[in-house]
Design a protein that fits this description.
Pfam families: Acetyltransf_1
EC number: 2.3.1.-
Shape: globular
Protein name: GNAT family N-acetyltransferase
Radius of gyration: 16 Å
GO molecular function, one term: acyltransferase activity
Strand order of the largest sheet: 1-2-3-4-5-7-6
Distance between the termini: 43 Å
CATH topology of one domain: Aminopeptidase
Strand content: 25-35%
Structural class: alpha+beta
Keywords: Acyltransferase, Transferase
CATH superfamily of one domain: Gcn5-related N-acetyltransferase (GNAT)
CATH class of one domain: Alpha Beta
Length: about 170
């Protein structure tokens, strides 16, 4: 009897500076797909500026070691003096063709795992009508804790928080 080989799918690994442009393009495509609009070069530039901020954690979902990113997360570890131990998840994106395969959940879990040693909690903001993202976060243990506005666009958002396991 032959054992069935199950493809584990794409892997998550730390991203590198040479992937910044691909990640910014991916975010721009994902937003255009979500909103039914053409990609906006200003959105791409905002992502590139964020990627230039240090320190950050960039994780990339790749089909293989050399493949172009299928997804990425960009988060910022806690900054400032104690007791602020809250990280910020700024971006979580998947190529529109990769949605619905569990890859976003895999990328989110890897991000939380990597932040667990440096933060007690993570916050993020999401558009109120982004039901797919909100469903992913809520089913992954995140809870809505407030409302606000995105600093870069002024659009309203829902703020989510996820407490992390202490190590």
């Amino acid at each position: 009897m032959t054992a069935l080989h199950r493809d584990p799918g794409p892997g998550v690994a730390p991203g590198a500076e040479h992937e910044y442009a691909a990640c910014a393009d991916l975010w721009s495509r994902a937003l255009a797909h979500r909103d039914g609009t053409p990609p906006d070069p200003l959105v791409r530039e905002r992502v590139l500026r964020k990627l230039g901020q240090e320190p950050h954690l960039l994780l990339v979902l790749r089909p293989d070691q050399d493949g172009d990113p299928l997804g990425f997360s960009l988060s910022f570890p806690p900054a400032g003096p104690e007791p602020s131990r809250t990280a910020h998840l700024a971006y979580l994106a998947l190529d529109p063709g990769g949605q619905g395969r569990g890859w976003g959940r895999r990328l989110l879990a890897a991000t939380l795992e990597r932040l667990s040693g440096t933060a007690d909690a993570v916050v993020l903001e999401v558009l109120p009508d982004n039901t797919a993202a909100r469903a992913l976060y809520e089913s992954s243990g995140w809870r809505a804790v407030g409302e606000g506005r995105f600093a870069d666009s002024g659009r309203p958002n829902v703020v989510y928080r996820r407490d992390l396991d202490r190590r």
